Amino acid sequence: MNSTDAVRKAPAKDPWQLPDVSGLVVGVLGGTGDQGRGLAYRLARAGQRVIVGSRAAGRAQEAAAELGHGVEGADNAECARRSDIVIVAVPWEGHAATLGSLREELAGKLVVDCVNPLGFDKKGAYAIRPDEGSAAEQAAALLPDSRVTAAFHHLSAVLLKDPAVEEIDTDVMVLGEVRADCELVQALAGRIPGMRGVFAGRLRNAHQVESLVANLISVNRRYKAHAGLRVTDV
Fold first, then answer.
1. Shortest CA distance to 155 belongs to which of 70, 105, 213, 233?
2. DSSP secondary structure letter of residue 149
3. Which pLDDT belongs to residue 15?
4. Bridge partners for 170 per DSSP
5. Contact between residue 133 and residue 204 where contact means Cβ atoms under 8 Å apart
6. pLDDT value at position 181?
7. Which Pfam family, any one of them, does this sequence belong to (predicted)?
8. Which of 46, 85, 148, 167 falls between 20 and 30 A from 192, CA-CA?
9. Are 186 and 198 in contact (CB under 8 A)?
10. 3-state class of 113 per DSSP?
11. Where are the alpha helices (DSSP H) in the chain?
12. Do 203 and 137 meet the contact criterion of CB atoms below 8 Å apart?
C-alpha cells in the first residue's frame, strides 16, 4: 500500500474536535470600547483569563474593574506582551496605527482581528474595502511575525455586555491561513455559551465577512433586533 492509499484510508479527523484553550490568556486591544468590553466580559465570565488593553493603562484598569470576573487592565503594549491570543477590537480609524505600533509585542502571537471597516451616511452603513483587501489582510501585512486570523465580526455588543443574557445564539465565522490557528479561535468562541466557531476560509475571503456587518446593521434597525448568524447543515 503506497502513501496515497494510506491517506485515503486514514480516518478523517472530526472537524468539531477542537483544542483546549481554557488555560490561555486572552488580550483584547480596544477592550474599553463596546465590542471589546463585551468580548472581554463574555470570555472572562466563561472562565478565561482576560486582559483588556487601551492606549491609557488607567482607562483599561477602570474598565477591568467594572467588568469583574478577574479581568485585568493594561496599556496596549503590556496587554499584547502578556497574552497568548490577542483580539483586535479597535476602531477601524485607528486599526493600522495601533497594530503598526505593536509589531514587536505581537510577534509570535495568535492575533484575532474582528474589526469591520465601515462608513456611515444618510443611507446607513456601508462597507469600506481597504487597499489590502480587508482589515484582517491589513493586519497580516502589518504583523508579518504574527499568526493572523479573523473572527467575532457579527456579534451584538448590546447582547455581549448584558449580564441578563445567558447565551449568545450565533455562529462565529473564523478565517485564517493555518487550520490549527483557526481551530484555536473556534475553540475560544465555543467557550461562550450559545456560540460556535465555524471555519470559513482563508484571509482573502475576510472582506465579505467584515462587510456583512453593514447588512446586519440594516436588519437590526428595521426589526429592532440584535441579529446574528447561523450556518446550517454543519
1. 213
2. E
3. 86
4. 195
5. yes
6. 98
7. F420_oxidored
8. 148
9. yes
10. strand
11. 3-9, 34-45, 57-67, 76-82, 95-101, 135-142, 157-161, 179-190, 206-223
12. yes
Q: Which of 92, 95, 96, 82 is nearest to 52 (CA)?
A: 82
For residue 158, give every residue at least 6 positions away whose Cβ sits within 8 Å of its Cβ, in sequence order, or none: 226
pLDDT along the chain (234 residues), means of 10: 38 82 97 96 98 96 97 98 98 97 98 97 96 98 98 97 96 98 98 98 98 97 96 96
Both ends of the chain: CA-CA distance in Å? 33
Burial class (CB in 10 A: 0-12, 13-18, 19+), 25: middle
Of 43, 39, 23, nearest to 31 by C-alpha is 39
Give CB contacts under 8 A, 24+ apart, made by 53-61.
53/27, 53/28, 53/29, 53/78, 53/79, 53/80, 54/30, 59/32, 60/31, 60/32
